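Lab meeting prep.
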Amino acid sequence: MLPSRLLADTLQIHAQDRVLILNSAANPFVEQIAQQGISGSITLAEDNVAMAQTVVAIAPARVHHVAYHNYTLQQPATTIDVAVIDLLYQPGKAWVQYGLQVALYALKPGGRLYVVGAKDRGIMSTGKRMQEYFSNLETLVISKGHRVLGARKPPDNAVQQAEVLHEPGIFAANRLDEGTRLLLEALRVRVDDDALDIGCGAGFLGLHIARQASAGQVTMVDVSLAAVDAAQQALVRSGLDNVRVLPSDGAQAVLNQRFDLVVTNPPFHQGGIQTTGIAERFIRQAAQVLKPHGRFYLVANRFLKYEPTMQACFASVEEVGGNTRYKVLLGKS
């Protein structure tokens, strides 16, 4: 990938440097530096549990993982020599702004921040924000619409410390989107259902099911630590006692359990690229964990062709809701 090559060509990492990767563990460059026999350390401030686990496994003695969304609440300041952000893996502007704020907090005076990204991912506006925070900015390379920008943290007395965002709701989807609303309308819950919400986000679906399945149990899972935190906070506010929230790559954490009901509103973008792979994996996992005669509900944009995968996994598949933009599919085991 071009961003990975650009980072490899421009980053200056010394043997004993402490490196901070800001929600960018999916960039192949990160695996490359994890494999190098340097004496320094790599901290993954990463939201995606699965991606973090993959990189940590390469060099568990030198690479460790912390949650991205609350880094400044959990980690000390001014301990990092080099920080890196790849804009491709930031879901929105709030994530980028937060990453710059964390870099300013974490870097030692003289420490270096590198940001790689394309114009259509906001590298120009990110550069303006870097100049505002660090009072310096350098364009290190430009190639095929991509840039690597660099900034150096000035001495402590020259830093205007930004107010750091750390509320998980900022980083997790905390509004009821149209697809989820349609799924809620089509969903049929039994009072004693044991249910699983894969990719729970802020917990709207799971908590709705828990209220109806008062004699059952609900498990909510998400690969995003910010989503898990937001769902956990929503659970506390709800007062429900028949719900648990777990970090998990899809249903990986509960593959040894069985459920009457599984629901999902899966993402279809990964690293800025449209993909059906995430939802198709959720579908296969749902079929694996459902009890006999269990039900699986999925909502998706109408143009996404998940029916063949569902038909291969379930005894019956039908459309039970939706509109011109979305469809709600029901698979029965």
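Slide two material, second protein:
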Amino acid sequence: MNKIAGWQSLLPFKISRQHHQVGVLYSCTLLNILLGVVISMLNTRALSPKFYGDVKFVVNITAFAVGLLTLGYFVSGCRLLALNHDPIRIRRLKGVMLLLLGLAMATVMLVLTGIGCWYWWSGKRELGCLFMVGALVSSAPLLRNYINTVAQGDNKIGGMALSRLLPSLLYVIVGGTVYHFWGATPSRMLLLQYGMIAAVILVIIFHGRPLFSGLKEEFADLNRENRQYGFQVYLGSVCGVSLGHLAGITLGIFSTDNVEVGLFSLGAALAAPLLLLPSIVGTVYYKRFATSESIDWKIIVATTGLALLSLVGFLVMIFPVVRLLYPPAYSAVAGYACWLSAAMIIHGMGDMFNRFLGAHGKGKALRNGAWLCGIVLLMGNIFGVYWLGIEGAI
């Protein structure tokens, strides 16, 4: 805050703490987007569409399983952290959530190992081995979920920004070096990319000094909040979020190989940054939303304008960017990304409003909205994919 105050004297306008945090998180996110492009170039040049699709198939099933395991406790803890100002209780809440995280991590490892054994016994031994390798680093999406919710509730935006930027930077350096000298395989890619995410986030988590003593009261509060709010959001997220990964699963199940899984996942990854600005605004203002009766109309207008401007820029740039950066085998991704970009803008704006509802404990409203989204996702990602393939998924 002293640094911000120092800058204020040099500027003709006032910069609030929230404006500063939006700038920091958005800047780090933009850098991470650029690193994400470099990572996708590195991965697609290192692996053929089939092997790249195999990696994404494992990642999508992992993400789907993770969405089923949180049971609402992370979002409940996020709200309790936002409403709490006692540093000791905050550290204990983090400790309780970390213990629950450990149980979820052990479960997802067992699930992926079981899937790997099934593929092995059914004759698809390469894919079976890849699932078993994926089980070793399956904690990465759970850890990312934990750090995002805890940092949002405790307003530790710096830690969240670091957790997004540092793993990508390390992977570009280490992955690029390893692939150059020793080559790339799907298993090596999973271990390097998701292993680094897990390692960095674990360091950030324990830097926050969670407490593991006197947790009975905190667990009771978390359980109570979860019954009233978090579990309702969880039921919705199973439909609205977990089913979002279903396309990357059914495309692999209904096809002879995972080529379309890779193309769809890459197109979605290229379009995904468009939802980040509205989502970041909701994240930074979450603690303020908890004590506000409405979202300031200036926030809505400014966020909408910037999001639409980003969409126009994306549509202008995507075709030349794909031709320049990716091998010819991935050229179809540009067209897929155009359609997905419009969806990402709508998802991003919805996420900002969901943050406001979440800050006010409107779990049932979030659940009902997510169920409606889930019905569309379920039908599209099963029947749409079965009849139309990747176009149905889009």
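Talking points for slide two:
The longest helix spans residues 87-121.
The mean pLDDT is 85.
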